[in-house]
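=== RUN LOG ===
request id: a7f3
mode: sequence -> structure
chains: 1
length: 173
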Amino acid sequence: MIDPAAAEIALLARLERLGIAYARHAHAPVFTVDEARALRGALPGGHAKNLFLKDKKDRLFLVVAEEEAAVDMKALERLLGAARLSFGRAELMAEVLGVAPGSVTPFAAMNAAPGRLTVALDRHLMGFDPVNFHPMRNDATLALAPGDLVAFLASCGHVPVAVDFRQPSPAPI
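=== RESULT ===
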């Protein structure tokens, strides 16, 4: 069983060790972009939808897209060099990311072994400051600078790729 409180404590400790500043905002649990939009009020910055995907070769992807981005799975396959993307099962998500459905976040990459997961960040989302994500649980939001998110991911052994849903190929961030 996943303990969201313990997962958040581990995340916050890691952010503090890295010297990454953040603001935490508590709210009612949210499971969809629409629910988050209704609850967040005037919380500034970029907001995301996070997709845990696998392809037919069992490669895993965490796609962090701006909440309004149109995610075309066929186009995403081309952008990521993936074959037949589908959503990862909840059991696989718990095993690899240590989170439950509704709590997927780029911060969960800290639980994935380096090389096990490709993290793809939406270029448009990374143009906002701050960027906002669940802290391993869906009843709070952490706001931080986009560069700090990239530094956090790199500290976990996951150098993200940038994906522009308007362009034909990914690039390093």
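=== NOTES ===
Strands lie at 23-26, 46-54, 60-66, 86-87, 117-122, 131-133, 140-144, 161-163, 171-172.
The radius of gyration is 15 Å.
=== END ===
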